[in-house]
Amino acid sequence: MYRPFVKTAIVSALSLSTVLSILPAGEDVQATTSQETLSIGESDLPESRNTKQVTKGVTHTDITRGYYSKKAYYTVDVSFFETKGQANSLLRELKEKGYDATLHEVKNKQSKYTDVEEKEIGYVVRSGEFENENGAKEHADQLSTSGYEKAKVTFSEYDGTTKTTGPWKIDVLEIDPSTFEGELTNVLANDEITGRETVSSMAERNQALAGMNGGYFVVGPTDGVPGDPAGISVVNGQLVSEAIGERTSLLLSGNEAKIAETSTTSHVKTKNGEKAVIDGINRKPGLIRSCGGIDDTETNQPKHDVTCTDSEEIIEYNAYFGDATPKGEGFEVVLNASGEVVETYSQRGHNIPESGIVLSATGDRAEWLKHNVSKGETLTITQNITADGKQMKTSSNLDIIGGAPQLLDEGKIDIQAKEEGFAWSNDFYYHFAQYRHPRSFAGIKENGNILLVTVEGRNPEESIGVSFLESAQILQSLGAIKGLNLDGGGSSAMVVDDKLVNQPSDLTGERPVSDGIFILE
User: Fold this and answer.
1) CB contact set of 230 (below 8 Å; sequence gap of 6+)
2) Each residue's pLDDT tens digit, 478-488
3) Averaged over 322-333, what is the pLDDT?
4) Longest dimension (CA), the chain
5) Cα separations (Å) of 381 from 15, 226, 284, 295, 339?
């Protein structure tokens, strides 16, 4: 069901600085000039660009670069190890069983561009070289049958620690705030937290000129509510999902944008002065996707694609969540738009008012809520959002899309992979950050122009994808001085003039996602 934005009176203490004060003021700044060609891959690769105007102040550029190398091949990654001794042990074992096996040393060639300082990341044991994917799949099945269950097919050029000739297919939307008269906005799937929707569907529903996918989100029910943004989300000035630590985010206001580290805090205060932390906004109690919360197991730090837990929480639900809160043991209070408690319940799972909120508690937080809050009293709910350490004041045209990690800062490649939770293990760092995947990312040029970029991947003959470093290099080549990564993989999708302009990597086609960034007239 569609629920319009309602700014409720209970959010009476939003300590936020004016968004326009942190966005480009529109002063006359000399534009940053993009390079004639991109800097990814081998030098002197063939590259072509086709640019068309979408509307006044908005262009779409289709870039193709590189070519399929005759030296490329399919292979099978049998396993990843952090020590050479472990890798050599498996290598010998495979050779003794008659398998062709090689050892690939994974180095951190990004070390001078990232906060991950280790020079040696690990070792991959591989088996076989095949001209086509089917041959590699048969080999992987044979290895799996022999007990090597981690064996999986890969393509030689997907390894982002090695040089390559590509190829790449890249789509770039560039928005010039000085001439674009429309609006940049964040759209939730189906205008709710729960559920997902394709970028194409969201674009059509909102009559958007163009757009692309946004932030990370919960996929399966074991990690929370499917479709719930995993990280900060602000829509029309209302906080609908809490931040993950202080991850990098994309802030939109009108036709301008800013990239900043964002954080959120929320509290409830009773008439007697008792105060408690609100752990989350519009999510399933006890499940914190990618961690970065408060007093959680196993960590309070960002840990990407890991679900932390907390059995004692207070979660706030507003109309963006849907019709009702998740059912379960605990205690709930329903507040109207003035902050007055109109109902209390000894179980979770009740209707969310159009104007107002529900506080839903578990564990000892449920006992706290039960003993400190009574029907008829007025509670004070405070929410604080910071951008680059400064408190903000929301306005109705403020949207925030959670991303991570930072890719560029002050024109230099500065990838905050470790700080933002992408290097919690060497295996994860290699396969997520250093590997080439389909990607979506955004950048800001010195003159305030906004770049929205998708790179196709997992398609060896058309586009192999990019690593974090190559994503940053693309943004830098296009003239950006600030940049961040967004959700990628099968989620990467861009629509221009009602047409999907990239080829998503999922075999089922365009993936339904949680939100998108759209250009409206």
Assistant:
1) 215, 216, 217, 218, 224, 244, 289, 290, 402
2) 999 999 999 99
3) 97
4) 76
5) 11, 26, 20, 20, 8
